Structures are given as C-alpha cells and as structure tokens.
C-alpha cells in the first residue's frame, strides 16, 4: 500500500474524473488523500479517499466565481479567459503550495498526482523533490509541428500559404503567452521558487508522467507527443455513483421512443441556457426527434412551456441515456464528449471558449461531429447540423472508431496502473 496525494480543482469537470481514479486506487488498497475545495470533499470521501480541504488557498463556489474573484464575471471570450488564468489558476497557486506542504509535513506521501490546473501541485513537488504525476481530465494537446496554435480552434492548414498562416499565428501566439509566462515566473517567486525555463504551455504538466484522458486518435496527426504521456481514454467510472442517479419520471418516453433521441447539454462551465439549450429546443421543436436536455447542477429550471418533443432534467444518467442517443448537441465539454464517443454517439458541437473550440475543431476534422464554430449558434444552424449527423452514417461510423480506441485504452484502471508503475520506478 502506498500513500498518494491527489489534487483536484473544485470544478465538476475536473473533480469527477479525478474522483474516479482516486476510487480505483482506493479499491487497490492505497491510502489516497485528495486536496480539493470543500464543495467536493464529500464526493471524494464517498469513494474512500481522505479529503484535504483548501485552507490557505481561497476556496470558491464554481456557481459564483465573482464572490471570491471579483474580476471573474459570467463573461465569455478571450479577455475573460485571461482573467480566469491570472486570478484563479495562477493566483491561487502559492497558497495551494502552502496547503500541500503543510499536508506533507503532517503526513508524508509517496506520490503526488495532480490536476494540471492545480498549479500548486507542481510547486509543491519542486519544493519536496517528490515523485510527481499529472492526472489530466482535460485534453493534452500541446503546441506542435504542423498544427496551428492551440486555442484558436483552427484545423491544420494545407500547402505553402497554410504553413505560412500557421507560422504567423504561432509567432503571435507565442508573443501573447509571453505575458502569462512572465506572470507564472512571478508566481513561482511568490511560492518560494526560483525562475525556471518553462513556457506557459508546459507549466501545467509533470515532466515525469502525464496520465491523460482521451486518446492519440482524437488529436491531429502528429509525432511529437513526449514518451512520458499516457492516454487512458474516458476517466469515468459509471459504478461510482453513490447512490446510483435516479432516472427522471419521464424516462419511459426515452426507453420506448421510436424517434431518434437527441441529447442537449451545455456541460458544467458556461451554463447560460440562451447560448445553446434554448436555441436547440427551438431548432428541434418541429423535428421528428425526442430531445433530452440535461441542465446540469448550475442551471435553474427553464421558464415557460417546453416543446412537446422535449424532456428536461437537471441530470440524466449517461449509462442509461447514451446507448439510446442518436446525436449529442453539446458545448464541447471534454468529459461529455468522451462519454458520447465511448458510446459511439456522434456530435454537434458549439464550442465557445476555453478548450472547447479545439475540441470542436478536432472532432469536426475527424468527421465525428459537425463543428458549429460558435458557442452561440442560431437555431437554423443547429437544426441543419442535427439533420446532417442523423442522416449521414459516416458520422456514427467515425464516432464508433474513435470510441473503440477510447474503450481500448483502459480508463481508470489503466490510469491506476500507470501511477503504480511510476511509484515502483520512483522507489
């Protein structure tokens, strides 16, 4: 049995996959602690891990960031993403380091395995010289040869003009992230560390081991992924729900539906229903489909009457829903996309900001999704995209190919295998 400290940013899209890995490690007999915000301590305790709550780090509620971080409003776009990076991810890292070092003083660990966006993980590992692995619920898509800069949602270009485009955009991207790299170096000094040679693209990931959700096949073709990166598919453990999520009262309508089932979700981050949920309901109201909307844990009930072919619930259990789903309409949240593909479900993706334009671009490039190229699509574009995906079998065939790759990578069990191997090698 080993002592393992994991870290998880207190967001649903990060905590749930890391919880699944923690649960698998507990099942194998390891003593697992998880450093996370108080809103998720019970969830980790439910799978047998020992939660360690943020103390020096300013804890927050993902339903209202601005209470803790006044500059973080419910705004969208690149400028707000920069604020999020500066205030939340970089800004809390020195205090995270303080908490983690205190936890190690009280009870040393054998391995630190962290959420890439919990930057205090990196700083604590450097202070202690302890074995360190990244467990990434987000896509590992670093900059590389032959692809445009990450964050723009552009597919690879072709020909001399395309290569020139990517070179110009790459230079602009490097100049843009230089400011954030300087902010990172200042943050290191606040955490009691000397400057290093890391760039803003590389600071989040362990140079020893990266265990990443997803697969090589979801990325563009490339040959420059480091050898220490291990893809493990979908980090979802459907058996960890305690108790199992209840089916909504209208579930028989789904189970018996002869019309195609279209699942609509905006995930757990940007959840304003006017972005995607309401336009999708309008778009599909007169289509011969059954629309199943999952609002998530942050969205209030929808006002007004629903179209007759729509069913809405805060949460709809994916193990029951996705095997019956013909297409998922989504904002491109990585966890939901992976679960859809794991069930061979093609997608319509409205990726607005953060990593979602990149997810939409890649799935559209592969042919498993229609990329709407906006986070706020018009109803007519959603309607046309759903018709295209449901009528062209190539979308489901591509989703099934990618899903088979994801399923074959082993998920949480493979993640635990890699972490155990890293423990053995380190000791």
UniProtKB/TrEMBL annotation:
Positions in coiled-coil regions: none
All residue ranges annotated as the Erythromycin biosynthesis protein CIII-like C-terminal domain in the record: 282-405
Signal peptide as annotated in the record: none
InterPro entries listed in its UniProt record: EryCIII-like_C (IPR010610), Glycosyltransferase_28 (IPR050426), UDP_glucos_trans (IPR002213)
Pfam families (alphabetical): EryCIII-like_C (PF06722)
Domain of life: Bacteria
Listed name of the protein: Glycosyltransferase
Organism the protein comes from: Isoptericola peretonis
